Design the sequence.
């Protein structure tokens, strides 16, 4: 197998991976960034509404208020040390992006434009705050392209269209690099690195209807899991209240931030009943459940009463054209309505994975230790949506993910620099170091098999959609788990017909499905185990939050065993926000 | 509905050929990409790039009934049968609908696509008025799909020397940014018989852009600016 050697291997060229890469390349380190797609095609490009930070450009603000909102939004499952770090570093992270060239929308006084988003308050639960910085409704696009541009300037080494297969670990558990393959040529490549950073993004494709791209297949989680690392809080998936019905494409919360609101089949503005104070800008879990209930109770819209409507024509042509042009485009293309004239049909749609690879706030991956609470995996880091730091806890606030990419992208890079200084030599790759990856690649050379990847893929998505949706209960989850096991057995018997070396997308999709399967199992097992309702995890059979038994993080292993670890309620420098009843 | 798709796998095929697929799509309108995915579920050897399925990532540009576009935002109802699909013209084919984008990206990189500002950064943001910012609308939204550049005859003939519409649109995006300080270097760099001046305003690029951007207008702005600085 061909080998290359770098100081750092970064897997993923989304916002997280490229922020970290920029920091390291500018610092003179030799960095390899691998991506399944050309960097600007990563799914960060699709982020619309904005990035949240307490700049106070529109209304007075304070990072502590942002911290309070984030802790509350997480339904108290977020780790408060990490949340403090996120919110405190927020303004600096946004200013840096502006200096890098990000074309933010502007206010009359020339400062960065900010809009209200869900779950934001001033003064610890008071009036609505205006905290989300935006480049129209294309903030992710603007951010991702800016980061790519800066990396070009910094001469980061990109391996474009290289798919990482598995991590390389030695007997002591150190991570020494990664095996990838060149998608165009079909050849494997061993990348040796003193530090490896996973930034592979989300895995929303485990569900049938999702706002996520085709490439969001949880590869980083699969790799971590196969190398013995448990996954954290996988029961927490955010259903975004407003995905275009049928298509799944996202309509940003920015629409409600700019004054749009939801109506049911009776023409009622129903969020007033569920969240009298924040209304349409309550936490996403709250709004998504409200919509699901309205539809369930027969108050949906349309002939089938299977969706609700998002109305925004009243906010006016000028505002829509200036602030929400991308939303208008999506709405015309995918819902066949022009929001200047008619409301958009929407349903709650899977959007974001709060759980992921367990990491601390400086990016190192941490696992349960034999003695003491946890220990770092030497040489392995995780950031962005694939990581669970955990700043989003049981429910992420809009605009906090883009911030998380930047803040922890940089923090992880800074920690890696320290790690590289302490570990100048790279340990040798053990003889069997690449076996796992080799066998995964070889498996799809097999020509006999009665099952087809596309069928299994679709069935897995249907099972997750039907058995692990907005509302959950034990029997339904248990049945889902049984069905998922059947589907996984079928995967053992699957074969692809494409055996070309050149750009073999059938093989890529098969490898992705294996990763999705890991994520699906972790999700359904964790959901079954957590017998309470918290944030995005709503159990019909356990409708209340139960802090006495469940104020803890789930850690699910590949063999199905589950550990828990305590929530870090103690921030770094400020007083803690103790759990209390969450209402909007 | 009938689709006629360009197929070529250098591993097994001596030359490219067109392959027909018939698909029962029912009465529901869907996007071309949805249809391609249904075809691929039947024949997994069909290769194409795709990711966001909403027209923002730029992966699935291809030549659709003779015109470049993104499969994911092209409704089947807008297409005449049989739907003829080919890889983007003017770039080497890797396999089926997948082309080698390297020459396209090389030109993009050549315009130094990043903000240059040598002043020490302030503690907060640099200021920019809404009017100054509005100049960037219609420029920064480019998704680097290459629909425009691969529709441009000047690029077909001189892919090594002519920057092409996408690259030039981005060159203007930085020249036009009130925060950028490298205008004269940027203009010097384009002052060349090929890099900029191979554009003969044929406007194929404008017609091809699935995001409604206007590279020809941006090229015109750059040319005007060059004239202005010589007088
Ligand atoms: C439609 C939509 C809108 C959103 N809007 C907002 C918003 O307004 N504000 C906000 O804060 N958040 C928003 N989010 C959430 C946020 O955009 C994402 O969580 C975030 O962009 C993820 O970034 P990332 O860097 O972790 O991963 P991604 O951007 O998904 O990048 C993952 C990278 O990993 C690479 N990769 C994956 N697997 C492999 C592999 N095996 N080998 C090699 N490379 C691999 C991919 O090629 C890609 O480069 C939105 C999400 C969606 C889906
Ligand atoms: S206007 Fe210029 S860039 Fe556009 S297609 Fe014509 S020659 Fe090419
Ligand atoms: S200008 Fe339009 S067609 Fe050209 S690369 Fe950009 S988005 Fe694509
Ligand atoms: S799949 Fe992203 S632009 Fe079509």
Sequence:
């Amino acid at each position: 197998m061909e080998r290359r050697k770098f100081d750092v291997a970064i897997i993923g060229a989304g916002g997280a991976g490229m922020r970290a890469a920029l920091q390291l390349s500018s610092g003179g380190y030799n960095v390899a960034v691998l991506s399944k797609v050309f960097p600007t095609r990563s799914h960060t490009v699709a982020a619309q509404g904005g990035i949240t930070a307490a700049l106070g450009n529109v209304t007075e603000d304070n990072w502590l208020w942002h911290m309070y909102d984030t802790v509350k939004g997480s339904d108290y499952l977020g780790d408060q040390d990490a949340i403090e770090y996120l919110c405190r570093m927020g303004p600096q992270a946004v200013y840096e992006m502006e200096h890098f060239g990000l074309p933010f929308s502007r206010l009359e006084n020339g400062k960065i434009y900010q809009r209200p988003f869900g779950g934001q308050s001033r003064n610890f639960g008071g009036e609505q705050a205006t905290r989300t910085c935006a480049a129209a409704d294309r903030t992710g696009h603007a951010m991702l392209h800016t980061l790519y541009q800066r990396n070009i300037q910094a001469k980061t080494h990109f391996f474009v269209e290289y798919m990482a297969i598995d991590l390389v670990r030695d007997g002591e558990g150190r991570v020494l690099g990664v095996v990838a393959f060149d998608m165009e040529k079909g050849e494997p490549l061993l990348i040796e690195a003193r530090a490896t950073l996973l930034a592979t993004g989300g895995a929303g494709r485990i569900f049938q209807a999702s706002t996520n791209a085709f490439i969001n297949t949880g590869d980083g989680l699969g790799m971590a899991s196969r190398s013995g690392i448990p996954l954290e809080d996988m029961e927490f998936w955010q259903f975004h209240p407003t995905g275009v019905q049928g298509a799944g494409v996202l309509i940003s919360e920015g629409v409600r931030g700019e004054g749009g609101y939801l109506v049911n089949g009776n023409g009622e503005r129903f969020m007033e009943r569920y969240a009298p104070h924040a209304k349409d800008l309550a936490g996403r879990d709250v709004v998504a459940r409200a919509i699901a209930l309205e539809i369930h109770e027969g108050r949906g819209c349309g002939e089938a009463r299977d969706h609700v409507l998002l109305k925004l024509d009243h906010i006016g042509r000028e505002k829509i054209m200036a602030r929400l042009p991308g939303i208008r485009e999506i709405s015309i293309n995918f819902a066949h309505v022009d929001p200047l004239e008619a409301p958009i049909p929407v349903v709650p749609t899977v959007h974001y994975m709060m759980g992921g690879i367990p990491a601390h706030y400086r990016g190192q991956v941490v696992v349960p230790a034999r003695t003491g609470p946890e220990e770092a995996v030497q040489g392995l880091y995780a950031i962005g949506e694939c990581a669970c730091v955990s700043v989003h806890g049981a429910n992420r606030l809009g605009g906090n993910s883009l911030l998380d990419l930047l803040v922890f992208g940089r923090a992880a890079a800074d920690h890696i620099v320290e790690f590289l200084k302490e570990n100048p030599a790279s340990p040798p790759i053990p003889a069997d170091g690449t076996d796992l990856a080799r066998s995964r690649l070889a498996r799809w050379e097999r020509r006999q098999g009665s099952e087809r990847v596309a069928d299994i893929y679709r069935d897995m998505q249907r099972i997750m959609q039907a058995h692990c949706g907005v509302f959950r209960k034990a029997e339904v989850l248990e049945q889902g788990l049984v069905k998922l096991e059947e589907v996984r057995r079928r995967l053992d018997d699957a074969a692809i017909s494409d055996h070309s070396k050149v750009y073999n997308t059938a093989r890529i999709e098969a490898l992705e499905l294996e990763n999705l399967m890991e994520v699906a199992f972790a999700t359904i097992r964790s959901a079954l185990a957590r017998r309470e309702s918290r944030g995005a995890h709503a159990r019909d059979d356990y409708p209340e939050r139960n802090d006495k038994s469940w104020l803890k993080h789930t850690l699910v292993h590949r063999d199905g065993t589950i550990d828990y670890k305590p929530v870090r309620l103690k921030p770094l420098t400020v007083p803690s926000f103790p759990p209390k009843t969450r209402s909007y | 509905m009938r689709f006629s798709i360009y197929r070529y796998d250098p591993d097994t095929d001596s030359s490219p050929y067109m392959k027909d697929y018939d698909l029962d799509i029912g009465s529901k309108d869907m996007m071309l990409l949805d249809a391609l995915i249904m075809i691929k579920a039947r024949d997994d050897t069909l290769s194409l790039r795709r990711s966001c399925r909403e027209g923002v990532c730029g992966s699935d540009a291809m030549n659709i009934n003779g015109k470049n576009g993104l499969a994911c935002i092209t409704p089947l109802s807008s297409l005449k049968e049989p739907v003829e699909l080919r890889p983007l013209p003017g770039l080497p084919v890797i396999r089926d609908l997948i082309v080698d984008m390297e020459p396209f990206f090389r030109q993009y990189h050549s315009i130094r696509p990043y903000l240059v500002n040598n002043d020490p950064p302030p503690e907060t943001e640099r200021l920019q008025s809404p009017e100054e910012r509005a100049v960037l609308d219609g420029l920064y939204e480019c998704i680097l799909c290459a629909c425009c550049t691969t529709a441009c005859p000047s690029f077909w003939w001189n892919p090594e020397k002519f920057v092409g519409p996408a690259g030039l649109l981005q060159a203007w995006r930085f020249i036009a940014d009130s925060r950028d300080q490298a205008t004269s270097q940027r203009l010097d760099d384009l002052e060349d018989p090929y890099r900029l001046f191979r554009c003969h305003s044929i406007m194929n690029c404008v017609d091809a852009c699935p995001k409604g951007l206007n590279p020809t207008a941006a090229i015109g702005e750059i040319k005007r600016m060059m004239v202005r600085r010589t007088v």
